[in-house]
Every structure is written in structure tokens, then in C-alpha cells.
Design brief:
Elements: H1 15-19, H2 28-38, E1 43-47, E2 50-53, H3 54-70, E3 78-82, H4 87-98, E4 102-105, H5 112-122, E5 124-130, H6 131-141, E6 147-151, H7 162-165, E7 177-178, H8 179-183, E8 200-207, E9 213-219, H9 220-234, E10 241-243, H10 251-263, E11 267-270, H11 276-286, E12 290-293, H12 295-303, E13 317-320, H13 327-337, E14 341-347, E15 352-356, E16 376-377, E17 382-386, E18 399-404, H14 416-422, E19 428-436, E20 442-447, E21 452-454, E22 457-459, H15 461-468, E23 474-484, E24 488-497, H16 505-515, E25 524-527, H17 541-547
Parallel strand pairs: 1-11, 3-4, 3-5, 5-6, 6-7, 10-11, 10-12, 12-13, 13-14, 24-25
Antiparallel strand pairs: 1-2, 8-9, 14-15, 15-16, 17-18, 18-19, 19-20, 21-22, 23-24
Length: about 550
């Protein structure tokens, strides 16, 4: 069944949310132009002790656009942006758009092979990266790229917080130009590029089932729709401070933090990259109203020795996205801070969120599985649950989640085969298994490819993980299928312990055995200090499967 089939329950949906549907979407370059004209002296970015106004960001990004254009970068050319959460990320992003370009956000943790694929596949003409990255390997990897700009994470701020910046030094970068020197390029204001909504804004690389990264083509309309949607959906007042908990090179940080901050003419607080102690200090200093990050980030914050209720006293809304949110974590966080973590769901191909728990509501928990809902489809979005033959399934029955809406990308860069497979007719087949209840709440069971087949019985790792998270000794949990001579596959759990706790494997097996069907509980539990994660905080089950 689809979202529209659930409409009779709308009487229970907060009508103020429905009334807050965004107006006709605009592009983020247009939205930034409006903010820079309307509130030029308002702080656009805070970064440790640095503050940059909308006027300053506008002028610096104008200079980058002039430099790029003077060096042959033209409309439709691609610029790779390989930076952490620093002001220069925003300056380079806007500068590339002002020059008419397409931005390719790249994870700075990529190494030579991964970066080479992205640069080659996207046909990148310009690159912006850190001085350290350039000197370490990017100079060689990007030697055929004509325009190279580098920058230091030490710029603007003066604290050089050794917890995250202690190993950073200012370096010379032979063969590249310093970004802020380029931003000082004199000249007239660049002409507005006047993007159409269906013009590509980003090529965001994501791994498919084959593991080969492919570039989702997020359009300006995709980004503008979701950035404006969050601003209205959340009810955050204009000028609010949003904290960049998710990395900006990830679609969540790009849209839900940076895009939404621009949309409400607010302030984006940045702290380079995630360090729990640094983030908690930044919360006290900058007093943000909103942030979004993976559940693992909230777990890490709660586990930090300096964690206190006061760190979160300024927040109006906290969202989780990018990784499964266990109900036990929601309740533990509420007990410690008084704040409820709102769930959200999205993919690179949906330009971040497409199903979200409204800020005025709490997500129901499915009584059968104990799974917390990921939310309700956002305005103008249709969610369907499909069976193996593509038929729509009844409420309550699990199948593949399919999404249609203005935030769904049109395809993958130079990959018509992948586009046809995952986006037939513009409908995104997510690869996630889930179901919808009669009121329209959507639940994710797990990734289609992560299902464990134990003696013919289906076991979804997330259900087992949710039970593990209810044990007080468990901080993080991940469940995978491992080879078993008798059952074909059997269930194995990996956990990291809560601070000061002793996570005993036998005790955890018994805990799950009491709470799950016989074929579901893990036969073995392995304790690790930390579980492997992506930079966006998602636990890497594939690495754990490889351990066996």
C-alpha cells in the first residue's frame, strides 16, 4: 500500500505540519543570494572562535568563482570538493556554483584508488582539498586536473584545538593555489548562473550492491526542495543556529545542515570533524537549536566523561539519520537529557530525508518487532511497499521500500544501466525492506542484502540489534550472518561495551535467547572496543562479516 492509501488517518496528523508545506522550491544558490542580501551582517558560519558573516562568505565565494572562470572552468564543469566541516567547504561549494559548475563532494578519507575512480568517472576539471591531503597523495592522483586549490583547517580560527587539529600544520602545496588567495581575486561580481531546477548541482557517489561507487545526480531542485522542506517541517525560527554533526560531504550534512541553515537565514556551527568532547564544548559555546547525526554519534556523546544534561539545554530539535536508531537509545538519551531524538530516513538518491518524524510528534514502535518508525513521508512524497514482483503489499506486510517525490534524483552519472535498475520510471527502489501501518507510519526492517537465512528462517539483523541495545552493558551492536555447516548461516553479534561496563558474551547470548525466537538469537557474541564505521557514523556490517 502507498502513502495515499493511508490518508484517512490524517485527522491524527498535526495539521500545522501539513500547513507548513514549502512554497515552490528554489535553488540553494538563489536561497543564499536572498540571505546575503537580506541579512548580510548575520553570522553565516561559526568555526571554533571564527565567525563569518553572510557578506563575507558571499564575497569570498565570489572570488573563488572569478578565479575558476578565469582559469577555464565553465558551466557544467565538475569540481571535486575533498574537505571536512570547515568554512572553506561552504566557500568553495558556493564559488563553484556561482561559476556555473557541478560539485562532486568526496569523503576526505578516500585513498588513491577510490579517489581516482571518482575523479575519472565524474570527469573532474577542478579540485579543492586540504594541504595535507594534497601533499600525501592527491597531488599525484590529480596530476591531470588543470585547476587545484588547497587550504588549511587552521584558517579563520585561532584555537588550534589539539583534540582534532593538533597534528595539522600549514604546508606549502607545490602545483596548487591556496584557496583563500584565489578567493581574493579582484573583479566584478560574477553573473548569477540562473540554474533550472533540473540542472545537476551535485554528483554524490554512493556504493551499490556491486560495491562500485556510482554518482547520484542531485539536482538543484532536489536540494532546494529538501532544504526548504526541513525548515518548514521543523518549525525552526529564522536565524537559528544549526550544528554540523554530520559531515558536509555527506548528503545529510549538505542538505539538512548547510542547506537548511541557508534556507532559514541561520548560522551553521562547524567543528572540523566529529570528536565527542569537542562537539559537547561547541554545544555549550554556540547554543545550537538543531542538529542531525547518526545514532552512533549520540551514543558516543552519552559515553563521553563530560556529558551532561546542560550540553543539550539549547536544543529545540534533535534528529537521527544515516544509521538505525534503536528505541533503547532514544529512551536512554531522553532520560539523560530530557530530549527526544526524532528519527528520519533518506538516501543519497533522495537528497537526504524523504520520510521524517515531524518535530511535534513521536514515532510509534511496532509492538511485534520492537522497531521504531522512521517517520511519515514528507509533503509531496509517495512511499510504496513492494513485493518481489513489484506489486503493492497490504499494510503491515514487509517488502521493498519505493519512493517517488521531488527530492528523488533523475539517475546516476553516466550509468544508464544502474538508473534503469534502481530508478525505473523515476521511482526509487531503495533496497531497504520495510512496511507501512494503517496510519502511514513507515518502518525499516533492514537492508535487503543483510537478511540472514538460518535453516530457511529469515532473520533481520536490526531486530536482534534492538534487543542487544536494551542491555545496559552494550554501547554499540551489529549483527551479521556467518557460515554454519548445519544451518547454512547463523547469527553472530559484535558489540562494544558501555563506559565502565563488562560486556560478557555468554550473558548477552542468554539475554537475547530470552527475548527472541530460537532461530533469531545470536549463537556467538564478540566484544570489540569500537565497531567499524563510515565517516557518516553507519556501522560497517560488511567489515564485520569479513571477520567471520
Amino acid at each position: 500500500m502507498s502513502w495515499y492509501d493511508a490518508k484517512p488517518w490524517l485527522a491524527s496528523y498535526d495539521e500545522s505540519v501539513r500547513a507548513a508545506e514549502p512554497a515552490k522550491p528554489t535553488t540553494l544558490p538563489e536561497t543564499f543570494r536572498r540571505a546575503a542580501d537580506h541579512v548580510p551582517d548575520r553570522t553565516a558560519i561559526v568555526y571554533f572562535d571564527a565567525r563569518l558573516s553572510y557578506r563575507e562568505v558571499d564575497e569570498l565565494s565570489d572570488g573563488v568563482a572569478r578565479y575558476l572562470s578565469a582559469h577555464g572552468f565553465a558551466r557544467g564543469d565538475r569540481l571535486a570538493l575533498v574537505l571536512q566541516n570547515i568554512p572553506q567547504f561552504v566557500i568553495a561549494l558556493l564559488g563553484a556554483w556561482k561559476a556555473g559548475g557541478i560539485v562532486v563532494p568526496v569523503n576526505p578519507m578516500y585513498r588513491d584508488r577510490e579517489l581516482t575512480h571518482v575523479l575519472t568517472d565524474a570527469g573532474v576539471k577542478a579540485i579543492v582539498c586540504s594541504q595535507r591531503g594534497w601533499n600525501a597523495f592527491i597531488a599525484e592522483t590529480a596530476k591531470d586536473i588543470g585547476i587545484a586549490l588547497t587550504t588549511s583547517e587552521l584558517e579563520f580560527q585561532t584555537r588550534d584545538d589539539e583534540r582534532v587539529l593538533g597534528k595539522v600544520i600549514r604546508e606549502e602545496t607545490p602545483g596548487a593555489t591556496e584557496l583563500l588567495e584565489a578567493a581574493a581575486t579582484p573583479g566584478p561580481k560574477p553573473p548569477e548562473p540562473a540554474f533550472a531546477l533540473d540542472d545537476v548541482a551535485l554528483i554524490s557517489y554512493t556504493s551499490g550492491t556491486s560495491g562500485t561507487p556510482k554518482g547520484a545526480t542531485n539536482t538543484h531542485g532536489n536540494l532546494g526542495t529538501n532544504a526548504a522542506g526541513l525548515g518548514s517541517f521543523s518549525g525552526l525560527p529564522a536565524g537559528s543556529t544549526l550544528f554540523g554533526l554530520a559531515p558536509l560531504f555527506h548528503i545529510t550534512g549538505m542538505v539538512c545542515e548547510l542547506g537548511s541553515a541557508i534556507d532559514i537565514e541561520g548560522t551553521l556551527a562547524l567543528a572540523y570533524r566529529f570528536d565527542a568532547g569537542v562537539v559537547l564544548d561547541a554545544f555549550l559555546e554556540h547554543r545550537p537549536s538543531y542538529t542531525v547525526g547518526p545514532s552512533t554519534a549520540y551514543m558516543a556523546l552519552m559515553a563521553h566523561p563530560s556529558f551532561s544534561r546542560d550540553h543539550f539545554s539549547s536544543f529545540a530539535l534533535l534528529y537521527s539519520g544515516g544509521a538505525a536508531l534503536p528505541p533503547a537509545v532514544v529512551e536512554a538519551f531522553r532520560a539523560k537529557t530530557g530530549h527526544y531524538i526524532h528519527n528520519g530516513y533518506g538516501l543519497t538518491e533522495t537528497s537526504a530525508g524523504c520520510v521524517v518524524v515531524p518535530g511535534t510528534l513521536e514515532a510509534p514502535i511496532d509492538p511485534a518487532s520492537g522497531t521504531i518508525s522512521i517517520g511519515l513521508p514528507v509533503p509531496d512524497t509517495i512511499v510504496r511497499i513492494l513485493g518481489e514482483d513489484g506489486e503493492e503489499l497490504p499494510f503491515g506486510q514487509a517488502g521493498e521500500i519505493a519512493v517517488e517525490g521531488p527530492m528523488v534524483v533523475s539517475g546516476y552519472w553516466n550509468r544508464p544501466d544502474a538508473t534503469a535498475e534502481s530508478l525505473p520510471g523515476g521511482r526509487l527502489l531503495t533496497g531497504d525492506i520495510g512496511f507501512m501501518d494503517e496510519r502511514g507510519w513507515v518502518y525499516v526492517v533492514d537492508r535487503k542484502k543483510d537478511m540472514i537465512n538460518a535453516s530457511g528462517f529469515k532473520v533481520w539483523p536490526r531486530e536482534v540489534e534492538d534487543v542487544l541495545y536494551t542491555h545496559p552493558a552494550v554501547r554499540e551492536a551489529a549483527v551479521v550472518g556467518v557460515a554454519d555447516e548445519y544451518r547454512g548461516e547463523t547469527v553472530k553479534a559484535y558489540v562494544s561495551p558501555a563506559p565502565g561496563a563488562n560486556a560478557d558474551p555468554a550473558e548477552l547470548v542468554a539475554w537475547c535467547k530470552e527475548r527472541l525466537a530460537a532461530y533469531k538469537y545470536p549463537r556467538t557474541v564478540e566484544v570489540l572496543d569500537e565497531l567499524p564505521k563510515t565517516t557518516s557514523g553507519k556501522i560497517l556490517r560488511r567489515e564485520l562479516r569479513a571477520r567471520g
